[in-house]
Amino acid sequence: MLVLEARGIAAQLLFRGAYYAVEVAAADAPRARAELERYAAENPPRRIAPAPRLHDGAIQGALIYVLVLFLVAVAASRQLLDHDWHALGVLDGQRVRSGEWWRALTALTLHADGAHLAANAGFGALFGVPLARLYGAGLAWAAVLAAAFLANLADAALMPADSAALGASTAVFAALGILGSRGRAMFGVGRGRAYRAAGVVGAVVLLAFLGTGDAHTDILGHAAGFLAGLLAGVALARLGLPGGALAQRAYGTATLAVLALAWGLAFRHTA
Fold first, then answer.
1. Are 20 and 62 within one domain?
2. Less CB within 10 Å around the terminal CB: N or C of the chain?
3. DSSP-based three-state secondary structure for 24
C-alpha cells in the first residue's frame, strides 16, 4: 500500500476471507503491478538462520576438563610413579622437534602453580560450556584438544632451543577460536560483512585482553591456539560430523584416551 501511495496510485486493502488483496482502478493495474514487482525484486526477504541445536551435558564436560587438570596437578606435585611430571611432559621445543610429539599434548595438562591452574580451569570451563552446548561435550572437547595439539606443535617448531611452555591456555584459546568461528556461522546470514565478522572480532578482542599477559606469557602459543581454533570451527561447520549421544560418548572417550596415551608414551620414553 505505501509503495503504491508513494507512486500516486490510489489503492485499498481488502480482506477476501482467507487472504488480503490490494485493489486499484483497472487503468492503474499494469503500473501498480510493475511497481510491486520492482519493490519485491529490490527488497528480497531476508533469510533467517535457523536456531542452533543445543546439546545436553555441557556442565559435565567442563567438570571432566577441570578434573583432569586437577588430577594431573596432584600427580605432578607428588611426583607419582617416582617421576618428575613436568620434566616428562613440558612443551620443550627441541625435544618435540627430536620426535617427542606427545609433549604437545601432555603440556596441556601441566601448570606452573595453583593460580595458573585455576585461571586455565576457569576460563576453559567458561568457553567450553557454550561450545559443548553447540557441538556436544564429546565433539567440542575433542576439537579443542586437536586444535591445541596442532597449535603446540607449531609453537614447538618456532620455539628457541632453551625455551619451554606448559599449561592449558593453548586449549583455552583454541576453544575461544572455535566459538568465534561458530559465531560467524550463527549470525552471519545476509547481514553484511561487518555483522558476519562479529563473532571473530569479539573473539580477537578477548584474545588481546586475556592472551598477551606479561613477559612469561606464551603469546605465540595463545595466538596459535586461537588460529587453530578458528580453522577447527570452519572444519566442524563443513564436515557435519554425527552429534548423537553415542557419538558424543565416543568423542569424549577418544579424547581422554589420547591424553592417557600421550602420558603413557612420556613415561615409556624414560624407561
1. no
2. C
3. strand
